[in-house]
Amino acid sequence: MLESLITSKTRLRLLIKFFVNAQNHSHLRGLADEFGESTNSIRKELNNLTQAGILVRHSDKNKIEYQANVKHPFFTNIRDIIRKYLGLDMLLEQILDRMGQVEQVILTGDIARGSDTGQIDVVVTGSVLNDGYITHLSKKIEDLIDRRVILTLSDHRISSGEGLVLFDKQAGI
């Protein structure tokens, strides 16, 4: 659906890269390698997004790094659209509704780094989780968001540095 609004696949991939997790940053060559595209097509889109103020650039030695502009007035809107596009809102809703006493929901793996490989790795923490429901829930979520979902359950909290925190009961997120 979002592909009909954003017709450039490169632009969409860049928006996913930088807006699924605002901490993600990269440089031109790294993006070209990651996306398997020419530096020219990526440079064009980076320049367009930077001129629009959606991305910011920082010099790091002799490389220019790009990152989402969290001060842009539409930052939250773009982030929410990207997360909806990836199905993260439905994923979170299903987990919180049916998995028991959830303490944290943390994205890990490629998606947390902004790479939409079609697989979403999620760690769910809590002391009383409905682990018998996990297989059914994974399949249901996969059908809803059209991506493979790997759910891992843990009874101990995970530090926020290990992925993108979607929900944390203690922190009120």
Describe this structure in words.
Keywords: Transcription, Transcription regulation. This is Transcriptional regulator. One of its GO terms (molecular function) is DNA-binding transcription factor activity. It comes from Algoriphagus sanaruensis. InterPro entries: DeoR_HTH, WH_DNA-bd_sf. This protein has 7 helices and 9 strands, in the order ααβααββααββββαββ. It is α+β, with helices and mostly antiparallel strands. It folds into 2 domains: about 1-75, Winged helix-like DNA-binding domain superfamily/Winged helix DNA-binding domain (Arc Repressor Mutant, subunit A); about 85-170, Beta Polymerase, domain 2, CATH 3.30.460. The strands form 3 sheets. A 4-stranded mixed β-sheet has the order 8-6-5-9, covered by helices on one side. Strands 1-3-2 form a 3-stranded antiparallel β-sheet. A hairpin with a 2-residue loop joins β2 (about 55-60) and β3. α3 (about 30-35) packs across α4 (about 40-50) and α6 packs antiparallel against α7 (about 135-145). The longest helix has 13 residues, at about 40-50. It is elongated and about 50 Å long.
Assigned CATH class of the largest domain: Alpha Beta
User: What share of residues are in beta strands?
Assistant: 15-25%
pLDDT < 50 runs, ≥5 residues? none
User: How many whole angstroms does the radius of gyration measure?
Assistant: 17 Å
Total DSSP helices: 7
Mean pLDDT: 89
Number of discrete domains: 2
Oligomer: single chain
Instruction: Order the strands across the largest sheet as they lie in space.
Output: 8-6-5-9
Q: Rough shape?
A: elongated
The separation of the N and C termini measures 28 Å
Helix content: 40-55%
